[in-house]
Specification:
The protein is about 45% helix and about 0% strand. It contains 2 helices and no strands. It has helices at about 5-15, 25-45.
Length: about 70
């Protein structure tokens, strides 16, 4: 996988597994908020001369024990 550096690419990659309708107001609001966060972090990172691309191929796997967190269903 290539590194993603555009907010739109990052957001769409992250939301894709949820298969949400992109036409709902809730989706649009979440997208707007995520875009603001990513752009803000990229501006700060660029100012500090730190990398701003995201490489999801190096992402660690997170295992969640739902029973341990109270989800017994």
């Amino acid at each position: 996988m290539n590194k993603l550096d555009r907010p739109r690419e990052i957001i769409e990659y992250c939301l894709k597994p949820l298969t949400l309708s992109t036409t709902t107001e809730e989706y649009k609001e979440v997208y707007r908020r995520l875009e603001h966060v990513i752009k803000t972090l990229q501006i700060v990172a660029a100012r500090d001369k730190k990398p701003v691309a995201i490489d999801f191929s190096n992402m660690r796997t997170i295992n969640i024990n739902e029973v341990a967190h109270g989800d017994d269903a």
